[in-house]
Hints:
Elements: E1 8-9, E2 30-32, E3 37-39, E4 46-47, H1 50-59, H2 90-95, H3 105-118, E5 125-131, H4 138-151, E6 155-157, E7 160-162, E8 165-167, H5 180-186, E9 192-193, H6 195-204, E10 211-218, E11 236-242, H7 245-254, E12 263-269, H8 277-287, H9 299-305, E13 309-315, H10 332-342, E14 348-353, H11 363-379, E15 387-392, H12 422-433, E16 445-447, H13 449-463
Parallel strand pairs: 5-6, 5-13, 6-9, 10-12, 10-13, 14-15, 15-16
Antiparallel strand pairs: 1-4, 2-3, 7-8, 11-12
Helix pairs in contact: 11-12
Amino acid sequence: MLITGILYISLSKSASRRPSTGTPPTSPNITDFGIGSTQTRSSSPKVIDRTILRVLHDIHEPDHHDVFPSTDLRPHLKWPPIVTRIPESKDVLENAGIRTPSLTAPAVDTVQFDESVCGSFPCRFLLPLRIAEQEPKAHMHLQQLAILASKLNRTLVLPNVGNNRIGACSKWPLDSYYDVDLLRSALPTINTLPFAVFDNWSETRPILPTSRVVSFSVGKSSGERDSVPDPFTDDFSINFDLADQKVASCLHSKFPRLHQSSSIISFAFYRSHTTKPSISQRLIQILSEDADSAEYFSDELATLRSSDVIAIEWDLRHPIFSEPNIDLQYSHALVELAERLASFTGPYIAVHWRLERVPVENLAWCAASLISTLRSVLDDDDSGPRVVWFATDYHSLSEGPEQPSGAKIKSARSGTFRTITSEHEEAMRILQDAFQTGGDLEGYGMTDLTIADKKVENVRGECSV
Length: 465
């Protein structure tokens, strides 16, 4: 609201006094600001209009007596209030040819802004904040989120990637890992938005976007539950908790305008295989903006449904929706890199072994069984591959060319595989010893990404590429 008013300035009387004799009065003090004269003859307050104030502003030289506007959100109350800027009246602005903004301008601008981004107002987004499971299964969960976005009539924000994971707070764009054009063509009925466009939308939208964080995870077994199950199905429960510290930190740093609440709405699923139609249908009924909210007397859920952004923390291991999987392809850049790395090894057999979830008492047996399987496959074809390429979540155990025999080079491969036991060490030693002299796989080579990448870097250095 614009406040207008008239500033009254009381000027002190002239220091000269009329003498008691008949001496004629001194002529009044006259100051000319180039806009006419003002006189201080009368003791009554003088009315100074804005024209004079502008002239005073132009000729004023700042000094330590100036008072500047406070930058505090809650400045100390003072009376009378300190005037640091003279508000302009509507008439003055119009006479000067300055258009005053309408009180509804932000709303009008937001409508136009949303329509330019997502084609309608208001925009409704589903943001994959974090997918817990890493590749090679992470893209399966991304497809589940795409289906969820479609069923909720929301636009899927294509998240970032990094460290073998998918999530909005990762560093690299999605097309660093995947063929995004192929993804869009495989999901023709699902609206998607590049992450960079969404990021700009969240930062510059004239009206602050509303948002809520939702978590999907595996719940406790029936004997361990400490929450109330959904009254219509015992397949999942709904809880209202504090957001995980990592999630809160991600929102605060990456999307400060979306970090509006420290709470999170959690859906805990009690069954491993959650693809029953009743489960997915019930979930959509709860989350859909068009759903009848009378079934749930919760302001939290009502707010969630109407939020501009639903940010998802996805920590499931099995799909909810039964739609067929998309044949999501890796990006052309990664395919070319893989082909270039493979060119240095020649024909190979690839082994992907995840140790994290294997019971430690089975690890030694698993390693011996793997060696036996590799020997039978490799011995079947004398002219076949001579190299075994390993991909594992274990801290890499490889012998670089510059290392003495048996030296260990360790680097983290997984962000969740943190507890390394003696059983893990023994299993990897069994596997590595099989490729040494006298081992079951003597004469064959073992490599991984670390070794192959070093070979590529060496060639680049020699060729000055």
